[in-house]
Amino acid sequence: MVPGSLIYRNNHKNYGNDISPQLHSHIPANHPRAESLLIRNMLVDGYKRGLVVSEGLIAHGRGEAFDYLLGEKTSNIAHIAIEAASSALMLARYPVISVNGNIAALCAKTVVELSHWIGARIEVNLFYRTLRRERIIKRELKCFGAKEILGMSLKSTAVIPELQSERRRVDPSGIMKADTVLVPLEDGDRTEALVKMGKTVVAIDLNPMSRTARSANITIVDNAIRALPKMIMTVKKLRGLKQEQREEIMKRIVKEFDNPKNLLESLSVMRENLA
Ligand code: PTJ
After folding, report:
1. Mutate which of 102, 131, 133, 168 to test ligand 1's pocket (most atoms within 8 Å of Cβ)?
2. From ligand 1's centre to the CA of 120, what distance in Å?
3. What is the signed CA dihedral for 229, 230, 235, 239, rounded to 10 degrees?
4. What number does the ligand 1 atom closest to the CA of 205 have?
5. Is the pTM of this model over 0.85?
6. How far, in Å, are 33, 174, 204, 264 from residue 95 at the CA level?
7. Ligand 1 midpoint to CA 31 (Å)
8. Closest C-alpha to ligand 1, atom 24
9. Which residues approach ligand 1 with their CB closer than 6 A?
10. pLDDT over threshold 70, residue 24
11. At residue 21, does pLDDT exceed 70?
């Protein structure tokens, strides 16, 4: 059992089904940094296919540096945040998962699967918005079984107050209507704005010091490619609880979660690894 965790029992590495070894057959399986190279290749492949912007490759590099400090595994601290995040999303009345280019390249299949398990809508929301990228990302998500994709430019007629970036434009049937929004890999401005609008924001960010990490209600300090499959496992475990107890347990998990404390503990994990 993970210390402090109410339901977690295992801690093995799990990158879900999004990594396709066939696509990257030139990386030897026994290479000491094979996993990291595979993930990097997924981003580059996503860039070549028009899902990811060049800035997304740089953002990934920053993420990699923090992941290195984390030991490239999901910490016990992150597991606690994963439980709180999964509970919050399951308790939500209208959950929405926001997808950008990097997440589409790394986790499209897992996002679609998670959306099914928690009954969430999926909205494409891009910082560097173009109609072409929207279409390519939508197609990618549909390939993995997504039924409806929100956030296409023509339908993104609602505006998040105070935001200047393209991320201000959201779908009235998606993020605008949501009570809980999952924002893997996000910029701080929008997280702050969504929290101000009274929404519960769940972020996944490898940098525990980022504005996103500090503004969100629940931040999972982990690589999205590891955290999202673990969220699915957690949701399945929560659904396995007796119905009479489930809601009470999930509410307790969310209530007991302390984001600033969790971020400080994630930093401690990095400090310990450095030492
Ligand atoms: O696809 P678009 O147009 O919406 O653009 C997406 C990017 C990523 C370019 C845009 O959102 C951006 O510029 O992001 P930032 O502000 O550079 O923030 C990226 C944050 O995500 C940083 O704090 C990184 O540490 C973190 N990060 C990078 N890769 C991962 C990650 N966190 C979790 N999992 C990752 N794989």
Report:
1. 102
2. 22
3. 110
4. 32
5. yes
6. 36, 8, 15, 27
7. 26
8. 63
9. 53, 55-56, 59-60, 62-63, 66, 100-102, 106, 126-128, 185, 187, 204-207, 210, 223-225
10. no
11. no
H-run or E-run covering 150: strand 149-150
Alpha carbon of 56 to ligand 1 centroid (Å): 6
Ligand 1: distance of its center to the CA of 53 in Å? 11
- The residue assigned the tokens 């918005």 is 129
Give the pair of three-digit tokens for residue 115.
Answer: 């959306």
Q: Where are the alpha helices (DSSP H) in the chain?
A: 34-48, 54-69, 76-91, 101-118, 131-143, 188-196, 211-215, 224-239, 243-256, 259-274
User: What letter represents residue 195's amino acid?
Assistant: V
User: In this structure, which residue's CA is closest to atom 9 in ligand 1?
Assistant: 56
| CA 186 to ligand 1 center in whole angstroms | 6
User: Which two structure tokens, joined as six digits, stand for 69?
Assistant: 């400090």
CA distance 155 to 45: 28
Determine the length of the chain.
Answer: 275
**CA distance linking residue 212 with residue 199, whole number of Å:** 14
Rounded-to-integer distance, Cα 22 and Cα 1, Å: 35
How far apart are the C-alpha atoms of 122 and 139, rounded to whole Å? 13
pLDDT tens-digit map of 81-123: 999 999 999 999 999 999 999 999 999 999 999 999 999 999 9
| Ligand 1 geometric centre to CA of 43 (Å) | 12
d(CA 74, CA 118): 22
Q: Which residues sit opposite 170 in a β-bridge?
A: 158
**Which of these ranges, 2-6, 62-66, 87-91, has the smallest mean pLDDT?**
2-6
Cα gap 48→105, rounded to integer Å: 10
User: What is the C-alpha to C-alpha distance for residues 2 and 262, in angstroms, rounded to an integer?
Assistant: 14
